[in-house]
Amino acid sequence: MLISPAFAQDAAGGGLALITQFAPLILIFAVFYFLLIRPQQKRQKEHKVLLSALKRGDRVLTAGGILGRVTQVKDGADEVEVEIAPNVRVSVLRQTIGDVLKPISANDTGAKS
């Protein structure tokens, strides 16, 4: 006998062994895609739509934690003018705006009527 039984068995089951080796890697990639990559892409698209829909009078929260009201939206530019205090206006980049806040109504303040 010139060929040992171990080599003979390995040559016969090559296709199935290859699939079983790559199946866990494919499964891990699928889990990462559906749990990490896809939700992040969805959030990025929503944020882009939110920034493109900015208008004068919106209350915004910047990435630095500053609350303010949009006073001027410059078309074609990445800058937005935000009033952070009475008569204090700053220019911020659109990308630094983290969220547009809902206006506070009298019913939401917690006061009992």
From TrEMBL:
Function: The SecYEG-SecDF-YajC-YidC holo-translocon (HTL) protein secretase/insertase is a supercomplex required for protein secretion, insertion of proteins into membranes, and assembly of membrane protein complexes. While the SecYEG complex is essential for assembly of a number of proteins and complexes, the SecDF-YajC-YidC subcomplex facilitates these functions.
Protein's membrane topology: Single-pass membrane protein
Family of the protein in this entry: Belongs to the YajC family.
A single cellular component GO annotation: plasma membrane
Record text on subunit structure and interactions: Part of the SecDF-YidC-YajC translocase complex. The SecDF-YidC-YajC translocase forms a supercomplex with SecYEG, called the holo-translocon (HTL).
Entry keyword annotation includes Transport: yes
The entry's keywords: Cell membrane, Membrane, Protein transport, Translocation, Transmembrane, Transmembrane helix, Transport
Subcellular location: Cell membrane
Gene: yajC
The name this protein goes by in its record: Sec translocon accessory complex subunit YajC
Entry's Gene Ontology BP terms: protein transport
Keyword Transcription regulation: no
Lineage: superkingdom: Bacteria
InterPro entries in alphabetical order: Preprotein_translocase_YajC
